[in-house]
Structures are given as structure tokens and as C-alpha cells.
Design brief:
The complex is a heterodimer. Chain A is mostly helical. Helices cover 52% and strands 0% of the residues of chain A. The longest helix of chain A is centred in the last third of the chain and has 17 residues. By secondary structure, chain B is mainly α. Chain B has a domain of 104 residues. The longest helix of chain B has 25 residues. The radius of gyration of chain B is 22 Å and the shape is globular. About 8% of the residues of chain B have low confidence. The chains are: A mainly alpha, B mainly alpha.
Chain lengths: 85, 264
């Protein structure tokens, strides 16, 4: 996998949309791709998130947090587990 | 053969015309695009004799006509038909409107063209930008004349079905839209789709779901080099219109999502 290092301005919403779309896809390496996306966008999560705006976009199997860096870590841990399975 | 018809002499005319055009382009004269268009028209036969094709010459006229349109904000100056003595090029060319210096970047002119006319990058780019600008202006005028409001107090926009089918737009806009959307997939198709998505949806989740799907289409239809060119084009286009920060932000997000997909 190639980590894209230049995703500097992208907001959390399109990242979560992309994660949703990848998770719902039939790609065999979808969890690795999600981890890769998260690694490319870690700094974009360094903000306080809006419960109304972001909660519904996070899968049920991931613990939501309004602290962006915490949510990023929860997402990273969960999808890394799934990629390893 | 008369002296002025010798190949080398007409070549000098082309060189001289191009130098004048370049100087005008770099200058700040308010009528510089009118002067450039006159130079191109006056020297048309010399350009054609010296290797430029009719299409290439037309594209240059279209390019500067578009710059002129932007500069004068859609208000066309009244101009007279220029004719050279003993030159019958007006009757030779089917696109008289270009030679007569009438507005070429209005919707009705572009709507009259079939898809085969849009056979160059210049025409696709300028026609797409013209259409997108016209739709945006139509959107602004829609709201300025609208009196009906939503429960939250905001002015009502076109209904979802009107926006989705483009039926809130004049029929010639829709015709041009369909012509451009039906051309071979290119960065201009992507730009048009991006504008449609922005027009159709307010909800960021819907916007980015649609953008993600469009990125898949772009990757399926374009080479890596074309995709990189698309990214540059989209970013250049939006950096020139920073007045709509939501639009510009969404376009940058679309580019970054596409970059991610390209790297996979």
C-alpha cells in the first residue's frame, strides 16, 4: 500500500464517507485501504468533532468520540484488527 | 506570384502578428482582447497559408473571445464587421459569427453546435466553463427573484426533482449540458459533474458519496497522466474563484479523495 502523504486539507466528513464506501465495498483488501487512508489523514482529525455531523457516519463497531484524535485512534485500532483477521 | 503572396513574406506577417498579440497580452490596455481578435482576423489568411489549420485558428479566436467575455463581464461592445479589400474569407467560412466578432460565448451560440464541433481542448474547456458560469448566474438570479420561503425562513430553491432533472434551467442550457456530458470522458466532464453534484446536494455525506463514485468513473476512463492533468485543472479553476469557500473546499476534498484512490 502507498500512503498518500498529501491529503492535508481534506475534512473529516469526506474521510468518513470514503471509509463507509470502502467498508461497504467488495474489495478484498478494503480494511488495509482504510488503515492506509487513516494513516494519510491523521492530522486532519486533530479537532473537536460535531456529534450531530459525524456520529452517524461512523460504523457501529467503532467507538465514537468527539475528540478527533481519539476517534482517529479508535478507527485505526478497529480497522487494523479487521485487516489482520 | 505577387510579392505579398510569397511564403516568406506572409510568414513575417504571422511572426509580427504573434509578437503584437504577446505584447498586448502582457499589457494592461482595456481593449487588448479586441485588438488581439482584430489581429487574428486581419491575419487569418496568413496564418492558414503558414500551416495553422482552420480549427487551430478558430480555437485561438475562441480563447481570446472567452478572455474578452470575462474581462467585460458579459457585456459585449458594439462592433463593426471588419472586411479586407479583395478578401472573400467571410463567404469561405461557415462560422461567420467568429469573423464578425459577435459574441461567441453565449449559450445559444454553443447550443447550436453538435458534439463534433467540440473536437478540441479549447472548445471543451471554454464551453464547459461558460455553461457552469451561466448555471451559477441563473442560480443567483433564481434566488434574487424568489419570494417563497422554507419553514426555517430561507428562500426556497428549485425542488429536488427540478434540480435533478435540470428542468429549472432554460432548455438551451439543458441541451448544451447534455451535449457536453455526452462527449468522451475528460477533465471537463468531471468538472461538469462536480458542479452538478454541488448543485444537487446540500448534505455533505451525499455530496462526497457522489464525488467518490465520480472519482471511480474518472479512474476507469482516464490514464494516470490525464488524472494528474485533471487534478491540476480542477485546482487551477477553483483557485480562480475563491468567493465560494464551500465550493472550493469541496473541490479540494474531491481532488484529495481522487489522489488517494490513484495511489491505491
Amino acid at each position: 500500500m502507498t500512503v498518500v502523504s498529501s491529503l492535508t486539507q481534506i475534512d473529516v466528513v469526506p474521510i468518513l464517507v470514503k471509509i463507509q464506501r470502502l467498508e461497504n465495498s467488495a474489495l478484498s483488501n478494503k480494511y488495509m485501504r482504510i488503515v492506509d487512508l487513516l494513516d494519510s489523514t491523521q492530522s486532519n482529525f486533530n479537532k473537536v468533532l460535531d456529534m450531530d455531523r459525524h456520529f452517524d457516519m461512523v460504523a457501529d463497531h467503532v467507538v465514537f468520540s468527539e475528540t478527533g484524535s481519539e476517534l482517529w485512534q479508535n478507527l485505526r485500532n478497529r480497522y487494523n484488527e479487521l485487516a489482520d483477521e | 506570384m505577387a510579392f505579398q503572396d510569397i511564403f516568406g513574406n506572409t510568414m513575417w506577417k504571422v511572426v509580427d502578428a504573434d509578437k503584437k498579440i504577446q505584447t498586448l497580452q502582457e499589457g494592461s490596455a482595456t481593449d487588448k482582447y479586441d485588438q488581439i481578435l482584430d489581429i487574428l482576423r486581419d491575419n487569418r489568411k496568413h496564418y492558414l497559408i503558414n500551416g495553422q489549420t482552420q480549427d487551430e485558428w478558430t480555437d485561438r479566436v475562441l480563447f481570446f473571445s472567452f478572455q474578452r467575455e470575462i474581462q467585460i463581464d458579459g457585456t459585449y461592445l458594439e462592433r463593426k464587421l471588419k472586411l479586407e479589400n479583395n478578401d472573400n474569407y467571410i463567404t469561405e467560412d461557415s462560422d461567420n459569427i467568429i469573423l464578425q466578432n459577435e459574441p461567441v460565448f453565449d449559450i445559444s451560440y454553443l447550443t447550436s453546435k453538435t458534439s463534433s464541433w467540440f473536437n478540441s481542448e479549447t472548445r471543451c474547456e471554454l464551453a464547459t466553463k461558460t455553461l457552469v458560469n451561466a448555471i451559477n448566474e441563473k442560480g443567483i438570479s433564481f434566488y434574487t427573484t424568489q419570494t417563497q420561503t422554507e419553514p426555517d425562513g430561507n428562500l426556497s430553491g428549485p425542488s429536488d426533482s427540478e434540480v435533478s432533472s435540470l428542468s429549472w434551467l432554460p432548455s438551451d442550457y439543458v441541451t448544451l449540458h447534455n451535449t457536453l456530458a455526452g462527449l468522451t470522458y475528460s477533465k471537463y466532464t468531471y468538472y461538469l459533474k462536480l458542479c452538478n453534484i454541488h448543485l444537487r446536494y446540500n448534505d455533505p455525506v451525499k455530496i462526497f458519496t457522489e464525488i467518490d463514485a465520480e472519482n471511480t468513473t474518472a479512474i476507469a476512463n482516464l490514464t494516470t497522466s490525464q488524472l494528474n492533468d485533471l487534478l491540476t485543472f480542477i485546482r487551477d479553476t477553483y483557485s480562480g474563484s475563491p468567493d465560494d469557500s464551500v465550493y472550493t473546499g469541496n473541490a479540494e476534498a474531491a481532488c484529495e479523495m481522487l489522489e488517494f484512490d490513484m495511489a491505491q
